[in-house]
Write a structure and sequence with these properties.
- The complex is a heterodimer of chains A (229) and B (267).
- Chain A has 229 residues and is mainly α.
- In chain A, 69% of the residues lie in helices and 0% in strands.
- In chain A, helix 8 (156-170) packs antiparallel against helix 9 (176-195).
- Chain A is globular.
- Chain B is α+β, with helices and mostly antiparallel strands.
- In chain B, strands 1, 4, 5, 8, 9, 10, 12 and 13 form an eight-stranded mixed sheet that branches. Chain B has a five-stranded mixed sheet with strand order 3-2-11-6-7.
- In chain B, strand 2 (52-57) and strand 3 (63-66) form a beta hairpin.
- Classes of the chains: A mainly alpha (229), B alpha+beta (267).
- Chain A: It is found in: Cell membrane; Membrane.
- Chain A: The chain crosses the membrane at residues 53-71, 83-101, 121-139, 151-169, 175-194.
- Chain A: Residues 51-164 form the Ferric oxidoreductase domain.
C-alpha cells in the first residue's frame, strides 16, 4: 500500500493532470497549437469531447469501489472525489457548450429542448442530480451529513444510467458504443447488488482499517471518500 | 479531372460556398464509417471507374449504361445549392452535374412510372461501413416522379469544377436541395421506375424519425431534435444557429409539389 504522502504528493497531482488532458486538448485545438484543430464543426467537436469525458469519468468513478475490492487496492478510494468532481466539471462544460456555443443563449429553443426532447431532458436531469453531489463533496459536508451522505451519493447509480441513456438516444444509427457503456455500468451496479444481497456475510464492511482515527466517518464502509481528513 | 461546367444562375445561390475542405472532410456516408471524417479517411480504395448504371422498371429504354454514356448527351452545369442535414447543420455547395429530369428522360419512363427508386453500389470490400450493420445495405432512396422531374433535382458528378471525390458519392449522386441531405443518395448503380412508393433506407431504420419525403421543414421537428434552426458549417466557434427556411429556402420553387398535403403526416 502506498504511503499517504505518496498518494497526496504523487498520485493525486498525477491524476489531476491526467483528468485535465481532455480540457487541454480542446484548448490546444481551439488555438490550433501544434497543428491541432477542432475540425469542420468546432462546436460539435467541443460538445462531444466534454460529453464523452463526463460520461467516462462518471463510469470510472462508479468503478472505484469494485476495482478496490477486486484488486485489493484500498487506497484507490482516496482518488474517487477528484474523479467525481472532474466528471461533474466535464458534464457542466458539456452543458455550457450547448447553452452558449450551440444554442447561443437562445432561451426559447433551450427551454423547449429541455422540456420536449427526451434525450435532453434526461441529460439535464443527470446534470441537476450531480449538483448536490458536487456541493457535498467536501469533508465538512461529509461530517455534517454523516450517514445520509452515503445515501445521497448513491444517486450516482441513477446518474450513470441516465447519462448512458442520454448518449444512447442521441446516436443516430450505430448504438454499439452506448451499449458498451451500458454493459459496463450494469456490471458495476450488478456487482454492488450482489454484494448487498440479504444474508451475505458483510466481509467488506468488517475489513480492518489501518488508522481508524484518520477515517472518522464510518471509514470502513464501502463508500468511504474521506481521504483527507 | 476538371469539368467544364457552366453556372446555371437561375438555380444558384449568391451565398459564398463552403470551402472545398469543409465539403470533402465533413461527410455522412455510412458506407465508409460513422464519423464525419470517416468517408474522407476510408474511401481511398473505392473505385468509381469504370461505372455502370442499371435502369429498369416502367420505362422504354432500360438496360445497363456506362456512366459516360449517361452524362455525355448533357451539358455540365454548376449549381450552388444549400445542403441541410437532418442533424441540423448546413452547407452551401457548388455542385457540377446534369438536371435529373434530362438524365431520366433519356430512358423514356412510361405513364406507369409514378416513382423513381435509386440504389447505392454494394461493395463491402471497398466500403468498410457496409461490413457493419449500422444500416441495411445497399442504401436505397426514392422520389415521386414529379419530384424527380423538378428542375431543381440534380445528378451531381463533381464539385468545385472537379470530379466528385469518393467521400461525396463518386461518381454520381442525387442532390435534392429542398430535402434533408440523406435523400441525396450517393454512388448510384441502379435507377428503377416504379408504380409504388419505394422503400428508403433511413425510413426502414427509424420510421418515426425519417419519412419518405424528408422535406426540410422548420415546423416539423425530428422527434429527438428541433429542426427550427441550423448551424451553418464554417460560421466558426461563435457563429450561432440561424433559422431554417421552409423547404430549405426553395419554397417558391417546390411548394406546389405538396399542395394539399399534410406535411406533418408526410414528413
Amino acid at each position: 500500500m502506498p504511503s499517504p504522502t505518496v498518494i497526496r504528493r504523487v498520485f493525486k497531482p498525477a491524476l489531476f493532470v491526467l483528468c485535465a488532458v481532455p480540457l487541454l486538448s480542446v484548448v490546444w485545438a481551439a488555438f490550433e497549437i501544434g497543428g491541432a484543430s477542432l475540425g469542420t464543426n468546432p462546436v460539435e467537436k467541443i460538445q462531444d469531447t466534454f460529453g464523452q469525458w463526463g460520461l467516462r469519468l462518471l463510469v470510472i468513478t462508479l468503478a472505484v469501489t469494485p476495482l478496490r475490492d477486486w484488486f485489493g487496492l484500498p487506497w484507490l478510494v482516496q482518488l474517487r472525489r477528484m474523479l467525481g468532481l472532474f466528471a461533474f466539471f466535464y458534464v457542466v462544460m458539456h452543458f455550457l457548450t450547448w447553452l452558449l456555443l450551440d444554442q447561443g443563449l437562445y432561451w426559447s429553443g433551450i427551454l423547449e429542448d429541455i422540456a420536449k426532447r427526451p434525450f435532453i431532458t434526461i441529460g439535464f436531469t443527470a446534470l441537476l442530480l450531480l449538483v448536490p453531489l458536487a456541493v457535498t463533496s467536501t469533508n465538512k459536508m461529509m461530517r455534517r451529513l454523516g450517514k445520509r451522505w452515503k445515501s445521497l451519493h448513491r444517486s450516482i447509480y441513477v446518474i450513470c444510467l441516465l447519462a448512458v441513456w442520454h448518449y444512447y438516444w442521441q446516436v443516430k444509427a450505430d448504438t454499439t458504443e452506448p451499449l458498451i457503456y451500458l454493459a459496463i455500468v450494469l456490471v458495476l451496479l450488478g456487482w454492488r447488488a450482489w454484494q448487498a444481497r440479504p444474508g451475505r456475510a458483510r466481509t467488506v464492511l468488517s475489513r480492518p482499517v489501518s488508522n481508524p482515527e484518520k477515517h472518522n466517518l464510518a471509514a470502513n464502509v464501502t463508500g468511504n471518500v474521506s481521504d483527507n481528513p | 479531372t476538371d469539368l467544364k461546367a457552366q453556372r446555371n444562375a437561375k438555380y444558384s445561390l449568391s451565398d459564398p460556398p463552403n470551402s472545398y475542405e469543409d465539403i470533402t472532410t465533413y461527410n455522412n456516408f455510412y458506407e465508409f464509417g460513422l464519423d464525419k471524417g470517416a468517408p474522407a479517411a476510408n474511401s481511398g480504395r473505392f473505385k468509381p471507374a469504370p461505372w455502370t448504371v442499371t435502369v429498369k422498371g416502367e420505362a422504354e429504354n432500360t438496360g445497363t449504361f456506362a456512366f459516360e454514356d449517361l452524362i455525355k448527351p448533357h451539358p455540365i452545369e454548376e449549381r450552388v445549392y444549400r445542403l441541410r442535414c437532418v442533424e441540423a447543420w448546413s452547407m452551401v455547395i457548388p455542385w457540377d452535374g446534369v438536371p435529373l429530369a434530362a438524365a431520366l428522360k433519356q430512358f423514356k419512363p412510361t405513364s406507369k412510372a409514378k416513382y423513381v427508386a435509386f440504389k447505392t453500389v454494394y461493395r463491402p470490400d471497398e466500403m468498410p461501413g457496409q461490413r457493419g450493420r449500422s444500416l441495411q445495405w445497399p442504401y436505397v432512396e426514392g422520389l415521386r416522379i414529379d419530384e424527380a422531374m423538378h428542375p431543381l433535382s440534380f445528378l451531381a458528378i463533381g464539385l468545385y469544377g472537379r470530379t466528385l471525390p469518393n467521400q461525396n458519392g463518386a461518381p454520381l449522386r442525387l442532390v435534392t436541395p429542398w430535402k434533408y441531405g440523406f435523400k441525396g443518395i450517393k454512388s448510384i448503380v441502379e435507377i428503377n421506375f416504379t408504380q409504388k412508393q419505394p422503400p428508403t433506407t433511413w425510413n426502414i431504420s427509424a420510421p418515426h424519425e425519417y419519412g419518405f419525403y424528408a422535406n426540410v421543414n422548420p415546423k416539423v421537428d425530428h422527434p429527438r431534435w428541433s429542426q427550427a434552426r441550423e448551424r451553418k458549417i464554417g460560421s466558426g466557434l461563435f457563429g450561432s444557429r440561424v433559422p431554417t427556411l421552409m423547404f430549405n429556402g426553395y419554397e417558391q420553387e417546390v411548394a406546389s409539389l405538396y399542395r394539399g398535403m399534410d406535411l406533418k403526416k408526410y414528413y
